[in-house]
């Protein structure tokens, strides 16, 4: 029973595809464009050539029918006078002898003399005619037959004929001609269709499929980081056609999308007034730096809360506040350093991270320098301001602490410094865990 369950449950279960495997499978070429256009060209060529075969076949058969009719009329004209005399004299042996002489003409299968009331009076002995398919008889109107009137005088004054000579061509000979013509035309046109298909396919491949395949491979082999800024290569032979328009439109759309992403990234990750990274961007950059730097290399995080920006929010316009924030950012950039990180956490708070700063003396010295730069008088039109700020300082990293923890400690230190008064500096050291805590 267990074996049976395994066979039923495991024998017909299809493996589930992941999203990545499904995308890779959907991007594969299952039916090449070359095969599709070759099949299309072959189908169109075959339909066209079949139409030509039918038209030419009916034309050739009609010409052969006219040739047979002309030959039958010539044969009937050659024996018309002696046969009329034999019928007029009721000389049956002579008439039969004349009909026998017609056997030398290979195209005949029937030679009869009939009365005006369709009564057969004489019949020529010919080999039996081989069967012809009924469809061929109906389509091509077989057999070919000629009826010649027999008169008593060379130039009859009376239109009534004594009898009629009926000659019929061999339908099987015409059937053989039809089969031979069909076989010849099918073989010829099949070779022509093959040549046309290969030639047209080669031209279309060179003109369209190969450039499209190159574009598809170029897009397929793109690395994920290259997709947003990728530009297609414009083929030299397609600068003024639809493929050139396609490539130029793609490149233009990529440029527009890149500019839109840059604008969106600038708006979402940087403040418009100062151009400094936002809080989320600063945390991401600091986490990346902490992961890349060894734990033995300390960092110092400063949170600068500028109280003047809060106080001036109601007295200054938004443009003046933006100029004030930009001026403060320029002052803080002077102590930014090559490896430091500077960001704007909120409309009135800034953050600065320095590496290789030894606590606490170098950190406090740097904080005092930052405070003196912020307190430098600033002129906004007719107004002169002397900004005030509170700075919180912390060192890191400590153990598995991340950027969020460091920034939270520095912000707590800045709040404590602001509670003591303006232009204060508070240093908050690492948290020390007690044993058993």
SSE blueprint and pairings:
Elements: H1 2-11, H2 19-26, H3 33-88, H4 92-101, E1 108-114, E2 120-123, H5 134-139, E3 145-150, E4 163-169, H6 171-220, H7 242-269, H8 279-292, E5 299-306, H9 307-311, H10 318-333, E6 341-346, E7 349-355, H11 361-374, E8 378-380, E9 383-385, E10 389-396, H12 403-420, E11 425-428
Parallel strand pairs: 10-11
Antiparallel strand pairs: 1-2, 1-4, 3-4, 5-7, 5-10, 6-7, 8-9
Helix pairs in contact: 3-4, 3-6
Structure in words:
This protein has twelve helices and eleven strands. The protein is α+β, with helices and mostly antiparallel strands. A five-stranded mixed β-sheet has the order 6-7-5-10-11, sandwiched between helices. A four-stranded antiparallel β-sheet has the order 2-1-4-3. Strands 8-9 form a two-stranded antiparallel sheet.
Percent in strands: 5-15%
Q: In total, how many domains does the architecture comprise? A: 3
Give the helices and strands as they follow along the chain: HHHHEEHEEHHHEHHEEHEEEHE
Largest sheet: 5 strands, mixed
**Looking across the biggest beta sheet, what order are the strands in?**
6-7-5-10-11
Q: N-to-C terminal Cα separation, in Å?
A: 57 Å
Over the alpha carbons, how many angstroms does the gyration radius reach?
52 Å
Our count of helices gives 12
CATH superfamily of the largest domain: Reverse transcriptase/Diguanylate cyclase domain
CATH class of the largest domain: Alpha Beta
Total strand segments: 11
Mean pLDDT: 80
Q: Spans with pLDDT under 50 lasting ≥5 residues?
A: 1-12, 431-437
Structural class: alpha+beta
Helix content: 40-55%
Q: Describe the global form.
A: rod-shaped
Instruction: Tell me the CATH architecture of the largest domain.
Output: 2-Layer Sandwich
Looking at CATH, which topology of the largest domain would you report?
Alpha-Beta Plaits
């Amino acid at each position: 029973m267990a074996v049976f369950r395994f066979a039923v449950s495991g024998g017909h279960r299809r493996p589930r595809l992941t999203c990545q495997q499904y995308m890779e499978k959907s991007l594969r070429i299952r039916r090449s464009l070359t095969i599709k256009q070759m099949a299309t060209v072959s189908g169109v060529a075959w339909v066209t050539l079949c139409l030509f075969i039918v038209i030419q076949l009916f034309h050739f058969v009609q010409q052969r029918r006219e040739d047979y009719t002309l030959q039958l009329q010539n044969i009937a004209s050659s024996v018309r006078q002696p046969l009329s005399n034999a019928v007029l004299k009721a000389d049956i042996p002579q008439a039969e002898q004349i009909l026998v002489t017609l056997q030398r003409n290979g195209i005949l299968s029937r030679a009869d003399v009939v009365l005006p009331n369709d009564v057969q009076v004489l019949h020529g002995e010919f080999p039996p005619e081989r069967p012809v398919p009924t469809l061929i008889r109906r389509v091509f109107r077989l057999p070919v037959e000629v009826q010649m009137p027999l008169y008593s005088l060379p130039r009859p004054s009376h239109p009534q004929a004594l009898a009629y000579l009926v000659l019929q061509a061999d339908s099987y000979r015409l059937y053989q001609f039809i089969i031979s013509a069909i076989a010849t035309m099918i073989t010829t046109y099949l070779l022509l269709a093959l040549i046309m298909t290969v030639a047209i396919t080669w031209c279309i491949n060179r003109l369209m499929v190969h450039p499209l395949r190159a574009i598809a491979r170029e897009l397929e082999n793109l690395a994920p980081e290259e997709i947003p800024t990728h530009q297609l290569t414009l083929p030299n032979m397609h600068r003024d056609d639809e493929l050139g328009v396609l490539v130029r439109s793609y490149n233009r759309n990529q440029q527009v999308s890149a500019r839109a992403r840059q604008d969106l990234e600038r708006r979402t990750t940087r403040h418009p007034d100062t151009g400094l990274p936002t809080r989320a961007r600063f945390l991401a950059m600091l986490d990346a730096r902490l992961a890349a730097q060894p734990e033995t290399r300390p960092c110092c995080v400063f949170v600068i809360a500028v109280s003047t920006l809060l106080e001036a929010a109601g007295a200054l316009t938004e443009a003046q506040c933006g100029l004030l924030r930009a001026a403060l950012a320029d002052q803080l950039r002077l102590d930014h350093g090559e490896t430091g990180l500077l960001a704007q956490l909120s409309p009135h708070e800034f953050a600065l991270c320095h590496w290789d700063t030894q606590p606490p003396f170098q950190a406090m010295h740097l904080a005092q320098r930052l405070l003196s730069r912020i307190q430098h008088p600033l002129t906004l039109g007719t107004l002169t301001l002397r900004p005030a700020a509170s700075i919180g300082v912390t060192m890191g990293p400590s153990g598995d602490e991340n950027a969020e923890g460091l920034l939270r400690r520095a912000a707590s230190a800045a709040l404590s410094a602001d509670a003591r008064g303006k232009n204060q500096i508070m240093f908050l050291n690492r948290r020390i865990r007690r044993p058993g805590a």
